[in-house]
What we know:
- This protein is mostly helical.
- It is 63% helix and 5% strand.
- The protein has a two-stranded antiparallel ribbon.
- The termini are far apart.
Amino acid sequence: xxxxxxxxxxxxxxxxxxxxxxxxxxxxxxxxxxxxxxxxxxxxxxxxxxxxxxxxxxxxxxxxxxxxxxxxxxxxxxxxxxxxxxxxxxxxxxxxxxxxxxxxxxxxxxxxxxxxxxxxxxxxxxxxxxxxxxxxxxxxxxxxxxxxxxxxxxxxxxxxxxxxxxxxxxxxxxxxxxxxxxxxx
Length: 185
């Protein structure tokens, strides 16, 4: 098939509109010998050797190159941050999907317990009006109390682990205080 582009007579507003016409050779005609690329004058190869001369950079090209070098440190920093953050974000997305799946197939009595725990936390917020210490103690205290009532086995394990950690922190604080006391007095 040969591609032929042709102009035609049209109204003045469409005088530059071109369209494609696809023409096929007649079935009766015998195949003609195609012309080789070397025989066309358009594709003649120049004689002699040619040299590649690199042009000097313009001021704009120099400025762009300087800007690229300046931005390279920031792009490397962004790429490093992205490569470090991507696994964390993927694990966060997976945790969210797992949580969603768990809430879709929640065990019996989960939502009433969740409501009791949330209501206890809101009561803690309501009762903590005024003092900043109350605002820090009441909501987590009421929420923890309701959670320990709803989930007693987990509360016992949490209390054991938390008690050990609090004891360790207290012991460390006592040792630091004792060392400071001996040095100063």
